[in-house]
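User: Hey, quick favor. My workstation is busy. Could you predict this chain's structure for me?
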Amino acid sequence: MTSRLISTLFACFVASPAFAGGTGPQPAEPAAQSFTLGEFRITSLRDALNIVPNDGSIFGANVGPKAVTEVLSRAGGPGETINLSVDALLAQKGSEAILLDTGLGPAIPGALPGSLSLAGVSPDQVTRVLITHVHGDHVGGLVTKEGNPAFKNAVVMISGPDWKWLQQQPEMAKLCNAIASQVKTFAPGDGVSTGITSVQIPGHTPGHVGYLIESKGQSLLDVGDTVHSSVVSLAEPDWDMGYDNDRVVGRTSRRDVLTKLAADHQLVFAPHFPYPGLGWIGSKGDQFEWLPKK
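Assistant: No problem, here it is.
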């Protein structure tokens, strides 16, 4: 991904309420859906909607809009845009309230604060924030509209490579300064909390990770931005994704992770799949399909 495109993405997700023409980040109604995973109470939290134009720059960046339109049409959807959810995950155990990613934040504004409230949790009760990667739709909610830390009592866990990279983005200087005292870095693959381990999934950003939550023989993998569209990313995982920092590594990771998830029948949370983003990956020849959790 070029530095110009990186800057554009940060600006779009943090500073701009919506792209022209009705695409880009859009508001959504708060929502919170919960279930039990061992000792954890897991809640999917709604934040926003991102309408991505099918213009050849993001999905199928190496094949062009026509090929993407064909995939979308076969799935019964429109071919001009791709709708992506923007969601976060809450993992509660005992006195711990652990938030995985923070949505877009005040620019839209995102619905995450309202969704947290529906889950019975206030921002001050969040004890730890785990960031999959530092794109604006995952870290924007770390600050309030006044520019103050949104989760003032939380430790903010960001992989070392991504924290370094985030600090190099001029558009994110205010956010970095606001949260710097809360940030604790880790190496991808490290444990980040009791029962939660980071999983290195390279290609999207320098330190992109997923998070594996395990308890009493049950597990859930937050895949971060390994995949984006429940249609295109699964039907054509080997296509280039314009959001990926390294497109070659990104598509290799995507294929490898999807193959393993399908083989293991691993429950996953995909923050950009249709809300609540919980389900399984199924194999379909050399392609994959989304099997939502009921």
